[in-house]
Amino acid sequence: MSGKLIVFEGTDGSGKATQARLLCRRLERQGMAFREIDFPRYGAPSAAMVEEYLSGALGKNPGDVNAYAASTFYAIDRYASYKQDWGPFYEGGGLVVANRYTTSNAVHQASKLAQAEREAYLRWLFDFEYRLLGLPAPALVLYLDLPTELSGQMMRQRERQTGTQADIHENNEAYLRACRENARQIARDLGWKVIQCASGGRVRSAEDIEDEVYREIQRLL
User: Fold this and answer.
1) Residue-wise over 32-64: b if at least 16 C-beta within 10 A, else e?
2) Which of 39, 96, 116, 167 is 20 to 30 A removed from 30 (C-alpha atoms)?
3) CA Rg, the chain, in Å?
4) DSSP code of 133?
5) Which residues does the UniProt record annotate as the domain Thymidylate kinase-like (predicted)?
């Protein structure tokens, strides 16, 4: 018996972690059993190559590491997480809420490729992770769409609040714009549920977005 996997996706600064956390709090209040997962798993051995990549140790620009190589770094971390952590719960019919997943490779890595090469990459990606590695495909992907200018503001605010520094993705505005354009097309093609996180040039409140998210979730539960 397989469970249900709900994935929050979006470019950097779009509020994925916040919305995943708010959904999990609501599920807790309702007494529902679930597992919350987050990728990449910074600090875990399986995420070492992801951290090397994002730190700039393999190249200062995202394009210095090709889409296929970078995708394998993230996939290894997901595979280890599934085997070590949440796999048995999911296979027993459990509900799993993920902040980022295979879909993040689709958003970030496909944007490095020419338009004519993206379809072949996406076929390879989903076959690699879902069939060859045996990871479950999501039952629902919620794509949080936020204009790049606003997502940049949100990331700078997060850095000030947490004392963290931006990685090579977050520091590259042109790359983030390409990711958003790519993601919006993929969301349409793959049937992801798009949540507009801005209205009238301003970011919607987290609570307002949460209510819309939960209306979508209810159709699955």
Assistant:
1) eebbbbbbbbeeeebbebbbebbeeeeeeebee
2) 39
3) 17
4) S
5) 8-196
162 — pLDDT class (breaks 50, 70, 90): low
Q: Is the entire prediction scored with pTM above 0.70?
A: yes
Average the pLDDT over 129-150 and give the result: 94
167-191 pLDDT, tens digit each: 677 777 888 888 889 999 999 999 9
CA distances from 139 to 4, 120, 147, 165 (A): 6, 23, 26, 33
Contact (Cβ atoms closer than 8 angstroms) between residue 102 and residue 125? yes
CA distance 154 to 128: 33
- Tell me the sheet residues that pair with 10: 144
**What are the tens digits of pLDDT across the range 100-133?**
999 999 999 999 999 999 999 999 999 999 999 9
- Which tokens in the block code for residue 148? 């790049």
Report phi then psi at 199, rounded to 5: -145, 130
Residues for the chain: how many in total?
Answer: 221
User: What is the CB neighbour count within 10 angstroms for residue 174?
Assistant: 10
Whether 148 has a pLDDT exceeding 90, the answer reads: no
Q: Which residue has the higher pLDDT, 85 or 150?
A: 85
CB 209 within 8 A of CB 19: yes
CA distance 172 to 40: 19
